[in-house]
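Predict structure. Chain length: 65.
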Amino acid sequence: MVQGYLDDRNADNPEPSGNRSRSYSHGFWNGRDDLAHSPRASGSALLQLGEKAIDDDIAESRAPC
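Prediction complete.
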């Protein structure tokens, strides 16, 4: 999540694709929001979305191959 946020601090970086984790993408969009000075949702909603991204990444990592 932090790496996604840091990567977005460069406005020239492309949007994340399917090869990035949900956590990375969430961080990226938070960084994009900060660059635009316009959050896409309330703080509590973003917190819930971040927790869901982490939970989804964990569940995916535990799924059988």
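Summary: The chain has a mean pLDDT of 93.
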